[in-house]
Protein backbone atom coordinates (compact mmCIF):
# COMPACT_ATOMS: atom_id res chain seq x y z
CA UNK A 1 0.00 0.00 0.00
CA UNK A 2 2.79 2.39 0.87
CA UNK A 3 4.50 1.82 -2.49
CA UNK A 4 1.16 2.27 -4.28
CA UNK A 5 0.52 5.59 -2.51
CA UNK A 6 4.06 6.76 -3.24
CA UNK A 7 3.61 6.01 -6.94
CA UNK A 8 0.32 7.90 -6.95
CA UNK A 9 1.98 10.93 -5.35
CA UNK A 10 4.75 10.93 -7.97
CA UNK A 11 2.21 10.64 -10.80
CA UNK A 12 0.26 13.60 -9.46
CA UNK A 13 3.48 15.60 -9.06
CA UNK A 14 4.65 15.00 -12.63
CA UNK A 15 1.19 15.67 -14.06
CA UNK A 16 1.17 18.93 -12.18
CA UNK A 17 4.53 19.87 -13.65
CA UNK A 18 3.10 19.26 -17.11
CA UNK A 19 -0.22 21.05 -16.74
CA UNK A 20 -0.62 22.95 -13.48
CA UNK A 21 0.76 26.09 -15.07
CA UNK A 22 -2.80 26.63 -16.27
CA UNK A 23 -3.10 24.51 -19.40
CA UNK A 24 -1.34 21.66 -21.20
CA UNK A 25 1.07 22.49 -24.00
CA UNK A 26 -0.42 23.02 -27.45
CA UNK A 27 -0.03 25.16 -30.57
CA UNK A 28 3.70 24.42 -30.96
CA UNK A 29 3.26 24.46 -34.74
CA UNK A 30 2.68 28.26 -34.62
CA UNK A 31 6.21 28.95 -33.35
CA UNK A 32 9.10 26.81 -34.54
CA UNK A 33 12.35 27.08 -32.59
CA UNK A 34 14.80 28.09 -35.29
CA UNK A 35 17.96 28.60 -33.24
CA UNK A 36 19.34 29.11 -29.76
CA UNK A 37 21.97 31.83 -29.34
CA UNK A 38 24.13 31.41 -26.25
CA UNK A 39 24.98 34.44 -24.08
CA UNK A 40 27.72 32.59 -22.21
CA UNK A 41 29.05 35.41 -20.02
CA UNK A 42 25.66 36.94 -19.15
CA UNK A 43 24.53 36.36 -15.57
CA UNK A 44 21.39 37.41 -13.74
CA UNK A 45 18.17 38.97 -14.88
CA UNK A 46 17.63 39.95 -18.53
CA UNK A 47 15.35 42.89 -19.28
CA UNK A 48 14.12 44.46 -22.51
CA UNK A 49 15.40 44.12 -26.09
CA UNK A 50 15.26 46.00 -29.39
CA UNK A 51 16.48 45.38 -32.92
CA UNK A 52 18.41 47.01 -35.73
CA UNK A 53 16.36 45.22 -38.38
CA UNK A 54 18.50 46.27 -41.34
CA UNK A 55 21.63 44.63 -39.88
CA UNK A 56 19.63 42.03 -37.93
CA UNK A 57 21.31 42.88 -34.64
CA UNK A 58 19.39 42.54 -31.36
CA UNK A 59 20.36 44.69 -28.37
CA UNK A 60 19.77 42.88 -25.08
CA UNK A 61 19.60 44.75 -21.76
CA UNK A 62 21.36 42.31 -19.42
CA UNK A 63 20.32 44.03 -16.20
CA UNK A 64 21.93 41.59 -13.78
CA UNK A 65 25.15 41.63 -15.79
CA UNK A 66 25.32 45.45 -16.10
CA UNK A 67 25.83 45.13 -19.86
CA UNK A 68 23.96 45.50 -23.12
CA UNK A 69 24.80 42.73 -25.58
CA UNK A 70 24.75 43.23 -29.35
CA UNK A 71 23.70 39.91 -30.88
CA UNK A 72 24.04 39.09 -34.59
CA UNK A 73 20.93 37.14 -35.58
CA UNK A 74 22.31 35.97 -38.91
CA UNK A 75 25.46 34.44 -37.44
CA UNK A 76 24.02 33.56 -34.02
CA UNK A 77 26.68 35.22 -31.91
CA UNK A 78 27.47 38.21 -29.71
CA UNK A 79 29.35 40.83 -31.73
CA UNK A 80 29.78 43.47 -29.03
CA UNK A 81 29.14 44.24 -25.38
CA UNK A 82 28.57 47.62 -23.70
CA UNK A 83 29.94 47.23 -20.19
CA UNK A 84 30.02 49.12 -16.89
CA UNK A 85 26.34 50.05 -17.01
CA UNK A 86 24.15 50.37 -13.91
CA UNK A 87 21.22 47.94 -14.15
CA UNK A 88 20.27 48.60 -17.80
CA UNK A 89 16.53 48.10 -18.23
CA UNK A 90 15.24 49.88 -21.34
CA UNK A 91 16.96 49.87 -24.73
CA UNK A 92 16.00 51.15 -28.16
CA UNK A 93 17.65 51.46 -31.54
CA UNK A 94 17.46 54.81 -33.37
CA UNK A 95 17.83 54.06 -37.09
CA UNK A 96 18.14 57.69 -38.28
CA UNK A 97 21.38 58.10 -36.35
CA UNK A 98 22.40 54.45 -36.03
CA UNK A 99 22.48 54.89 -32.26
CA UNK A 100 21.55 52.77 -29.27
CA UNK A 101 19.72 54.38 -26.34
CA UNK A 102 20.04 52.72 -22.92
CA UNK A 103 18.11 53.55 -19.72
CA UNK A 104 19.85 52.56 -16.46
CA UNK A 105 17.72 51.62 -13.46
CA UNK A 106 20.54 51.92 -10.94
CA UNK A 107 21.62 55.55 -11.39
CA UNK A 108 18.85 56.89 -13.66
CA UNK A 109 21.34 57.79 -16.40
CA UNK A 110 20.37 57.41 -20.06
CA UNK A 111 23.19 56.90 -22.54
CA UNK A 112 23.44 57.19 -26.32
CA UNK A 113 25.96 54.93 -28.10
CA UNK A 114 27.17 54.72 -31.68
CA UNK A 115 25.81 51.36 -32.84
CA UNK A 116 28.89 50.60 -34.97
CA UNK A 117 31.70 51.56 -32.60
CA UNK A 118 29.72 51.14 -29.33
CA UNK A 119 31.24 54.42 -28.14
CA UNK A 120 29.17 56.69 -25.90
CA UNK A 121 27.92 59.82 -27.67
CA UNK A 122 25.70 61.56 -25.08
CA UNK A 123 24.16 61.32 -21.60
CA UNK A 124 20.81 62.45 -20.20
CA UNK A 125 20.58 62.18 -16.41
CA UNK A 126 17.20 61.39 -14.88
CA UNK A 127 16.27 61.35 -11.21
CA UNK A 128 16.47 57.55 -10.68
CA UNK A 129 15.30 54.13 -11.91
CA UNK A 130 15.23 54.83 -15.66
CA UNK A 131 13.22 51.90 -16.97
CA UNK A 132 11.13 51.18 -20.06
CA UNK A 133 11.73 53.08 -23.30
CA UNK A 134 9.68 53.84 -26.43
CA UNK A 135 10.96 55.55 -29.56
CA UNK A 136 8.54 57.47 -31.80
CA UNK A 137 10.40 57.36 -35.12
CA UNK A 138 8.09 59.90 -36.81
CA UNK A 139 8.34 62.53 -34.06
CA UNK A 140 11.97 61.57 -33.30
CA UNK A 141 11.18 61.51 -29.61
CA UNK A 142 12.25 59.00 -26.96
CA UNK A 143 9.95 58.41 -24.00
CA UNK A 144 11.48 57.03 -20.79
CA UNK A 145 9.68 55.89 -17.65
CA UNK A 146 11.64 56.69 -14.51
CA UNK A 147 11.74 57.33 -10.77
CA UNK A 148 8.84 57.37 -8.34
CA UNK A 149 6.60 58.52 -11.17
CA UNK A 150 7.59 60.23 -14.38
CA UNK A 151 7.86 60.05 -18.15
CA UNK A 152 10.79 61.98 -19.64
CA UNK A 153 10.72 63.16 -23.26
CA UNK A 154 14.11 63.21 -25.02
CA UNK A 155 14.86 64.60 -28.49
CA UNK A 156 16.64 61.93 -30.54
CA UNK A 157 18.36 64.54 -32.74
CA UNK A 158 19.72 66.87 -30.05
CA UNK A 159 20.08 64.30 -27.23
CA UNK A 160 18.36 66.77 -24.88
CA UNK A 161 15.43 66.30 -22.52
CA UNK A 162 12.54 68.43 -23.80
CA UNK A 163 9.67 67.44 -21.54
CA UNK A 164 8.51 65.70 -18.39
CA UNK A 165 5.20 64.34 -17.08
CA UNK A 166 4.65 63.49 -13.40
CA UNK A 167 2.74 60.33 -12.50
CA UNK A 168 1.35 58.85 -9.24
CA UNK A 169 3.76 55.92 -9.26
CA UNK A 170 6.62 54.30 -11.16
CA UNK A 171 5.62 53.58 -14.78
CA UNK A 172 6.07 50.17 -16.31
CA UNK A 173 5.21 49.47 -19.96
CA UNK A 174 3.66 52.27 -22.02
CA UNK A 175 2.58 52.73 -25.64
CA UNK A 176 2.19 55.63 -28.07
CA UNK A 177 -1.02 56.16 -30.03
CA UNK A 178 0.28 58.57 -32.68
CA UNK A 179 -3.16 59.06 -34.23
CA UNK A 180 -4.66 60.26 -30.94
CA UNK A 181 -1.41 61.92 -29.79
CA UNK A 182 -1.69 60.00 -26.53
CA UNK A 183 0.70 57.94 -24.44
CA UNK A 184 -0.90 55.15 -22.38
CA UNK A 185 1.01 54.12 -19.25
CA UNK A 186 0.80 51.20 -16.82
CA UNK A 187 1.27 52.33 -13.19
CA UNK A 188 1.09 49.15 -11.07
CA UNK A 189 1.53 50.75 -7.64
CA UNK A 190 -1.47 52.99 -8.30
CA UNK A 191 -3.43 50.12 -9.95
CA UNK A 192 -3.86 52.50 -12.84
CA UNK A 193 -3.64 53.01 -16.58
CA UNK A 194 -3.04 56.68 -17.37
CA UNK A 195 -3.47 58.53 -20.66
CA UNK A 196 -1.04 61.38 -21.35
CA UNK A 197 -1.75 64.10 -23.91
CA UNK A 198 1.51 64.36 -25.86
CA UNK A 199 0.81 67.91 -27.04
CA UNK A 200 0.07 69.35 -23.59
CA UNK A 201 2.32 66.82 -21.78
CA UNK A 202 -0.21 66.19 -19.05
CA UNK A 203 -2.35 63.31 -17.78
CA UNK A 204 -5.89 63.63 -19.12
CA UNK A 205 -7.38 60.27 -18.05
CA UNK A 206 -6.83 57.78 -15.21
CA UNK A 207 -8.46 54.35 -15.14
CA UNK A 208 -8.10 52.28 -11.98
CA UNK A 209 -9.17 48.78 -10.96
CA UNK A 210 -8.89 46.80 -7.73
CA UNK A 211 -8.44 43.46 -9.47
CA UNK A 212 -6.52 42.14 -11.27
CA UNK A 213 -3.37 43.91 -10.05
CA UNK A 214 0.28 44.39 -11.09
CA UNK A 215 -0.21 45.65 -14.65
CA UNK A 216 3.24 45.41 -16.23
CA UNK A 217 3.29 44.69 -20.01
CA UNK A 218 1.18 46.58 -22.55
CA UNK A 219 0.57 46.51 -26.31
CA UNK A 220 -1.63 48.66 -28.52
CA UNK A 221 -3.73 48.61 -31.66
CA UNK A 222 -3.41 52.28 -32.59
CA UNK A 223 -5.90 51.91 -35.46
CA UNK A 224 -8.78 50.75 -33.26
CA UNK A 225 -7.28 52.52 -30.20
CA UNK A 226 -7.41 49.36 -28.12
CA UNK A 227 -4.99 48.48 -25.32
CA UNK A 228 -3.78 45.00 -24.37
CA UNK A 229 -2.73 45.06 -20.72
CA UNK A 230 -1.02 42.20 -18.90
CA UNK A 231 -1.68 41.74 -15.17
CA UNK A 232 0.16 39.36 -12.82
CA UNK A 233 -2.20 39.00 -9.82
CA UNK A 234 -4.04 36.98 -11.02
CA UNK A 235 -2.50 36.52 -14.49
CA UNK A 236 -4.93 38.24 -16.85
CA UNK A 237 -4.98 39.97 -20.21
CA UNK A 238 -7.41 42.89 -20.18
CA UNK A 239 -8.37 44.35 -23.55
CA UNK A 240 -9.46 47.96 -23.05
CA UNK A 241 -10.86 50.78 -25.17
CA UNK A 242 -8.20 53.52 -25.04
CA UNK A 243 -10.71 56.28 -25.63
CA UNK A 244 -13.01 55.62 -22.68
CA UNK A 245 -11.37 52.94 -20.50
CA UNK A 246 -14.11 50.40 -21.16
CA UNK A 247 -13.10 46.76 -20.65
CA UNK A 248 -13.63 44.80 -23.85
CA UNK A 249 -12.43 41.38 -22.74
CA UNK A 250 -10.60 39.54 -19.95
CA UNK A 251 -8.54 36.38 -20.54
CA UNK A 252 -6.25 34.22 -18.37
CA UNK A 253 -2.58 34.34 -19.42
CA UNK A 254 0.83 32.95 -18.49
CA UNK A 255 2.11 33.91 -15.04
CA UNK A 256 4.74 36.58 -14.43
CA UNK A 257 4.24 38.17 -17.86
CA UNK A 258 6.71 40.93 -18.70
CA UNK A 259 6.29 41.42 -22.45
CA UNK A 260 3.18 41.47 -24.62
CA UNK A 261 2.74 42.21 -28.34
CA UNK A 262 -0.10 42.70 -30.81
CA UNK A 263 0.49 41.96 -34.49
CA UNK A 264 -2.29 43.78 -36.30
CA UNK A 265 -1.56 42.07 -39.63
CA UNK A 266 -2.30 38.61 -38.25
CA UNK A 267 -4.54 39.65 -35.35
CA UNK A 268 -2.37 37.63 -32.97
CA UNK A 269 -1.43 38.59 -29.41
CA UNK A 270 1.84 37.19 -28.00
CA UNK A 271 2.55 36.98 -24.25
CA UNK A 272 5.80 35.76 -22.65
CA UNK A 273 5.65 34.70 -19.00
CA UNK A 274 8.28 33.87 -16.42
CA UNK A 275 6.38 30.69 -15.54
CA UNK A 276 7.96 29.27 -18.72
CA UNK A 277 5.21 29.70 -21.28
CA UNK A 278 4.40 31.71 -24.39
CA UNK A 279 0.70 32.31 -24.95
CA UNK A 280 -0.74 33.19 -28.36
CA UNK A 281 -4.26 34.51 -28.81
CA UNK A 282 -6.26 35.16 -31.96
CA UNK A 283 -8.12 38.48 -31.67
CA UNK A 284 -10.96 39.43 -34.00
CA UNK A 285 -10.66 43.17 -33.33
CA UNK A 286 -14.04 43.40 -31.63
CA UNK A 287 -14.55 41.51 -28.39
CA UNK A 288 -13.55 37.92 -29.00
CA UNK A 289 -10.13 36.43 -28.30
CA UNK A 290 -9.30 32.74 -28.47
CA UNK A 291 -6.14 31.21 -27.06
CA UNK A 292 -4.47 29.15 -29.78
CA UNK A 293 -1.12 28.27 -28.21
CA UNK A 294 0.55 27.53 -24.86
CA UNK A 295 4.20 26.89 -25.71
CA UNK A 296 6.78 25.83 -23.10
CA UNK A 297 10.00 27.86 -22.85
CA UNK A 298 12.23 28.14 -19.76
CA UNK A 299 11.57 29.23 -16.17
CA UNK A 300 12.15 32.96 -15.77
CA UNK A 301 12.14 33.59 -19.55
CA UNK A 302 9.68 36.46 -19.37
CA UNK A 303 11.14 39.13 -21.69
CA UNK A 304 10.73 38.84 -25.43
CA UNK A 305 10.77 40.69 -28.75
CA UNK A 306 8.32 40.38 -31.64
CA UNK A 307 9.94 41.14 -35.02
CA UNK A 308 7.08 41.11 -37.58
CA UNK A 309 9.31 42.15 -40.48
CA UNK A 310 11.44 39.03 -40.04
CA UNK A 311 8.57 36.83 -38.82
CA UNK A 312 10.47 36.08 -35.63
CA UNK A 313 9.64 35.95 -31.94
CA UNK A 314 12.67 36.04 -29.61
CA UNK A 315 12.60 35.05 -25.93
CA UNK A 316 15.44 35.78 -23.49
CA UNK A 317 16.21 32.96 -21.05
CA UNK A 318 18.38 33.87 -18.08
CA UNK A 319 21.30 31.70 -16.91
CA UNK A 320 20.62 28.85 -14.51
CA UNK A 321 22.91 26.43 -12.67
CA UNK A 322 22.56 24.02 -15.59
CA UNK A 323 22.40 26.32 -18.63
CA UNK A 324 23.95 29.53 -19.96
CA UNK A 325 21.78 32.53 -20.72
CA UNK A 326 20.42 32.36 -24.24
CA UNK A 327 18.08 33.79 -26.82
CA UNK A 328 15.40 31.40 -28.09
CA UNK A 329 14.66 32.46 -31.68
CA UNK A 330 11.32 31.22 -33.00
CA UNK A 331 10.03 31.42 -36.56
CA UNK A 332 6.40 32.52 -36.79
CA UNK A 333 4.38 30.07 -38.86
CA UNK A 334 1.29 31.60 -40.44
Topology (SSEs and partners):
Blueprint: H1 2-19, E1 31-39, E2 49-52, E3 57-62, E4 67-72, E5 77-82, E6 88-94, E7 99-104, E8 109-114, E9 120-125, E10 133-136, E11 141-146, E12 150-155, E13 161-166, E14 174-177, E15 182-187, E16 192-197, E17 202-208, E18 213-221, E19 226-233, E20 235-241, E21 247-252, E22 257-263, E23 268-273, E24 277-283, E25 289-296, E26 303-307, E27 312-317, E28 325-332
Antiparallel strand pairs: 1-28, 2-3, 3-4, 4-5, 6-7, 7-8, 8-9, 10-11, 11-12, 12-13, 14-15, 15-16, 16-17, 18-19, 19-20, 20-21, 22-23, 23-24, 24-25, 26-27, 27-28
Could you describe the 3D structure shown?
The longest helix has 18 residues, at 2-19. The protein has one helix spanning 2-19; strands at residues 31-39, 49-52, 57-62, 67-72, 77-82, 88-94, 99-104, 109-114, 120-125, 133-136, 141-146, 150-155, 161-166, 174-177, 182-187, 192-197, 202-208, 213-221, 226-233, 235-241, 247-252, 257-263, 268-273, 277-283, 289-296, 303-307, 312-317, 325-332. The strands form seven sheets. It has a four-stranded antiparallel beta sheet with strand order 1-28-27-26, with no helix packed on it. It has a four-stranded antiparallel beta sheet with strand order 2-3-4-5, with no helix packed on it. The chain has two domains: 25-42 and 211-334, Methylamine Dehydrogenase, Chain H; 44-166, YVTN repeat-like/Quinoprotein amine dehydrogenase (Methylamine Dehydrogenase, Chain H, 7 Propeller). It has one helix and 28 strands. With 334 residues, it is mainly beta. It is globular, with a radius of gyration of 20 Å.
Amino acid sequence: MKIHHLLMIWLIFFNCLASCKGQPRYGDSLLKLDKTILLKDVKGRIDHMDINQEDQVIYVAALGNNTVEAVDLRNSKIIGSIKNLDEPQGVCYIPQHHEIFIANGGNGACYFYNARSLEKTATVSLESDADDVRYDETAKKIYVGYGAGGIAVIDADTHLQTGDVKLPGHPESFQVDANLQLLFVNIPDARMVAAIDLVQLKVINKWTRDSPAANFPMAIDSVRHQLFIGYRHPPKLIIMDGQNGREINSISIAGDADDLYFDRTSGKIYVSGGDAYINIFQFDGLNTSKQIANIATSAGARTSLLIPGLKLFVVAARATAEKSARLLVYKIVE
